[in-house]
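Input (structure):
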């Protein structure tokens, strides 16, 4: 009976957080849909000219993937895919407002060579007539606005610069908070996190990406928001709820299954307690449950609104295609799409390279060191810490378990795309070293 009594308030908190998130998600999705509609037909000749200039200067190349390239970025495939979808507006505006047309290069072509041909005047190159219903495609909308007025290189520099400035701002603000003595434990936690993101988030390879850049900037902006709120005394209940719902909605709009959803949820579960006012552990759990529910419901609500919009325009086929892709991502599709055990292990090991280009051994060593010393720190804090410190340590441990669980849920996608999905282990590195530092601070003789 006592367990039921304990579970019931948590269910109430989760329901409340979800109810707050739905109207916020609806508002943001409606604004995005309007903005997406207004992005159509914006000086396509100028946009195509910028693409041709990019190929002429080498900013775009025919290769889809460029491992180790820190100028153009590693993930050219997604860049070319998004630019192609932004340019290809050979359909009714209502259809393009719901979903872009998904290009597919021929067997002897790459996505980037198909884009080159399309921008050069071959409007049949790469066209399939297939609609890309699986995502909301905030990236494509952004490119439709930016490409007619700036070059491809300028777009990449913009995304990379925004992320750099967010990280620098986080480091500077948390160091100033430490100097001024503002919540030193919390400020130290945020400083360690921003330092981890500055090195182990693969910004040199993915920061300039048209697909990773916007979604990564949203994550960093939310981290900065939490750090600033922490230094100012902490978030109120409504501020944490509304911020989580906005974070979830924007994550869904700009997510391309690059890890934003599991990383975002982990940040709320593990990071939000450090941005709340000092309170008893039970109240912190309530706030985290509400915010995590708001984030998840906002993500699901935006995806549901997208499916509803696609259904209203394209009919039941839009559901079938999305369901089929979800099955593949969970490893329940055709046997050809499921990697073998040895192949999976190789891809997961090589994927550590995404944390820092060309340094997968060092990245792996840092990850395992963070796990080992972070586990020691968590154990120490649970054993000797005060109730609030113990609760925070448990929140951080739970946040990393959430990352692992969500990666396992979509395990086929995780393995095939380990070369960028494993970037989210930056959270494990940052929180592991934060737990270690907190344990030393709590018990210097440990």
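Output (sequence):
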């Amino acid at each position: 009976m006592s367990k039921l009594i304990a579970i019931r308030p948590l269910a109430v908190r989760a329901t409340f957080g979800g109810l707050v998130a739905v109207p916020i998600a609806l508002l943001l999705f409606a604004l995005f849909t309007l903005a997406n509609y207004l992005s159509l037909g914006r000086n396509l000749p100028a946009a195509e000219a910028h693409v041709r200039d990019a190929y002429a200067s080498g900013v775009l190349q025919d290769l889809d993937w460029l491992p180790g390239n820190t100028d153009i970025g590693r993930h050219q495939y997604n860049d070319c895919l998004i630019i192609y979808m932004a340019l290809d507006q050979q359909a009714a505006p209502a259809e393009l407002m719901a979903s872009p047309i998904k290009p597919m290069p021929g067997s002897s072509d790459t996505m980037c060579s198909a884009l080159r041909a399309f921008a050069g005047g071959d409007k049949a190159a790469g066209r399939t007539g297939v609609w890309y219903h699986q995502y909301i495609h905030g990236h494509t909308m952004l490119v439709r606005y930016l490409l007619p007025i700036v070059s491809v290189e300028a777009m990449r520099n913009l995304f990379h610069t925004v992320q750099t400035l967010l990280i620098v701002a986080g480091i500077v603000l948390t160091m100033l908070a430490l100097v001024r003595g503002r919540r030193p434990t919390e400020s130290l936690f945020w400083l360690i996190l921003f330092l981890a993101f500055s090195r182990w988030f693969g910004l040199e390879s993915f920061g300039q990406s048209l697909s990773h850049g916007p979604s990564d900037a949203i994550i960093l902006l939310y981290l900065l928001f939490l750090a600033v709120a922490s230094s100012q005394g902490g978030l109120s209940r409504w501020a944490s709820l509304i911020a989580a719902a906005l974070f979830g909605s924007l994550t869904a709009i700009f997510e391309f299954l690059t890890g934003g959803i599991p990383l975002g949820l982990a940040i709320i579960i593990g990071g939000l307690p450090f941005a709340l006012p000092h309170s008893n552990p039970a109240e912190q759990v309530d706030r985290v449950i509400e915010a995590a529910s708001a984030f998840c419901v906002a993500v699901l609500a935006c995806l549901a609104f997208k499916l509803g919009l696609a259904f209203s325009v394209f009919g039941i086929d839009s559901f079938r295609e999305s369901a089929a892709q979800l099955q593949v991502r969970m490893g329940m599709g055709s046997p050809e799409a499921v990697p073998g055990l040895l192949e999976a292990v190789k891809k997961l090991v090589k994927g550590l390279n995404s944390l820092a280009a060309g340094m997968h051994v060092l990245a792996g060593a840092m990850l395992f060191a963070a796990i080992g010393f972070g586990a020691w720190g968590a154990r120490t804090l649970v054993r000797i810490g005060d109730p609030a410190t113990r609760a925070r340590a448990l929140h951080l441990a739970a946040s990393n378990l959430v990352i692992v669980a969500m990666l396992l849920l979509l395990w086929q996608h995780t393995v095939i795309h380990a070369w960028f999905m494993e970037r989210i282990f930056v959270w494990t590195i940052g929180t592991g070293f934060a737990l270690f530092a907190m344990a030393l601070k709590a018990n210097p003789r440990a």
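Notes: The chain has a mean pLDDT of 90. The longest strand covers residues 101-102.
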